[in-house]
Model the fold of this input.
Amino acid sequence: MAPPTPPPDRPRGGRFGSLADWAQRHRGAALLIWAVVLVAVTLGSQAAGSAYKNDFALPGTDSQAATDLFTHHGSARAGDSVDIVLKDRQGIDVPRAAVERMLAEVGRLPGVAEVRSPYTDASAVSEDGTIGYATVTLDAKAEAMPKEDVTAIIDTAKSAEGDGLQVEAGGEAVRGAEEKGSPTAELAGVVAALVILGLLFGSLVAAAVPLLTALFAVGSALGLIVLASHVFTVADFTPPITMLVGLGFGVDYALLIFYRYRHELTHGADPAAAGRKALDAAGRTVFFAGCTVIIALLGLVALGLGSLQGVALALALTVLTTMAASLILLPALLALFAGRIQRHVLKHAARAEAKGNPEGRRWRALATAVQRRPLPSLLVAVLALLALSAPVLGMRLGFADAGNDPKTTTSRQAYDLLAEGFGPGFNGPLVVVTQGDETAGKAVRSELARTEGVAAASPAMPSEDGALSTVIVYPKTAPQDEGTTDLLHRLRDDVAPKAEHDTGAEILVGGATAASQDFADTVSQRLPLFVSVVVGLSSLLLMLVFRSILIPIKAALLNLLSITAALGAMVLVFQHGLFGVQPGPVEAFLPVLIFAIVFGLSMDYEVFLVSRMHEEWERTKDHSLAVREGLASTGKVITAAGAIMIVVFGAFMLSADRMLQQFGLGLAVAILMDALVIRCLIVPALMQLMGKWAWWLPAPLARRLPRVALERPADS
Done:
């Protein structure tokens, strides 16, 4: 007996069309499920509380080995420290009684292992006697200290201020405890997205649907990440990144599907059929693009870089949630507002047709202009991107320190006072550990003091069991200067081997400054493998989808070009100080994080544009027509999606945190280059030059590769 024929009002489609069909018919249930999930996750995360933890441990590096030695031998330097910096123009001896009372109170606070007063250590007072510092040794690393304990130290120290005495607190623990951010960036991103969507669709309801989908997804993802922080190591800077990245991706994915939905409505489909066809076409693109982003982000886990693994997992979870919301929640919202959206879309289409301004006319004209002169268009665009990418060749990786903090923070003021009183290198000392007897420690100290680039070296300080000697080396240059990096490598490559040969002791160079450089060096070493794996897997997926050799190669090269252009802009602004920004290194983990996010987003736009070209090619076998119609159909939505991403990511630059500013600039520039220069100029020019060879796949390979259908024709 033949199988029953599907009902005429619900034609058979793919799995995504069936999913849309279910969500539209059961829109109440779909909306209720998402609302319940959001409420449950939010309440659960509030009840459990967050367990964010920064983990910058790098097994196998000298700095980590030095930390492990401190811990094993019971050295007080196994924990981090807070500097309480004092300044009095009459000399810090004047307020001595008040300062000593304050230091005694600090010594009784939770998390404090030891307090060393400047009045018992002459080296802790500047030559003119006006600046001094007390060292508060903590019983844990800075990232493990509860913020409330560090805040108590800051408040107690500041209580001694007055009568000409200035008191500031510095150190990584203090920087972590200070609140430098605000919800300004997130709010600006939401408002900007709503404005652009409103201008694009001319309707508040139509604009609100993609944004509402994104907000539901991001709200759920944030709660899940709080819960995940109890299982995985998730850094405390993850939530703001997750919020804005999730908002950008969520609006982006929902917009691509919603735009296809409008296309189907204008071509005569009823709302239910339009929803099925939109999901069966653009929904597949979103699913593929989301999987590509998740693969790229999970590739970061393989780098083995502590907190970066938790950030990658959190962002992958966010992308997965936004993708699910676009495929399930969005069709339900479309069904809920179907009547109002349909009336507006048809009215807008009729008005445009009456004015002789059909959909895609300007983009069709742009494609035609590029096709007339594809080679000049290609060369001008590529040369511009290469020029912007050039500064990457001199990129220095590192970490922002207190010298990059806002001038109003106590950590920045403590940094400036220490540099004023003791020299620029005082804020970034190197800790040299000698595993040997006291004689070996003294010999190593003498060698270090004679080394070029060293301003001063402290006396060798033995550990409690006498097995270690520690020398604090103060560079002549500031922590972020190239001179400090050169000194670190000189100590490890030249000074330490010679001293080990002379004394027979084992020598390690550690400390926070060395650990930062070790992290940057590790990223640089592992980056090529990470890029190769992500690009290789993505190219293989594109080959399966488009059954082409040249399309994946083109996509990979252009995606890399947009990423290097973004990194070049970051180097110009933050490393070279363009626009008055304080110069410093690029945050060490940002290049790999930006690569993973931008590569996935670029693949998103690539698939959306080229799949429409491929659809026209399969229908007409006219490659010039396919290029024109592909850009005409997708140019507006790609530009709008790119504009939303740019303003959402650009909102990061409103943050007071330098790392978030760099992150926002890099992502915004990458999307700007990709959505405008690459997708609207370079891709049409290349596709025109390649002609029918763009869709060529060697016959032996074509027989072996499985067929993966990405786009279903609109009339399926």
Summary: The mean pLDDT is 83. The first strand starts at residue 81 and ends at 88. The chain has 23 helices and eleven strands. The first helix runs from residue 15 to 25.
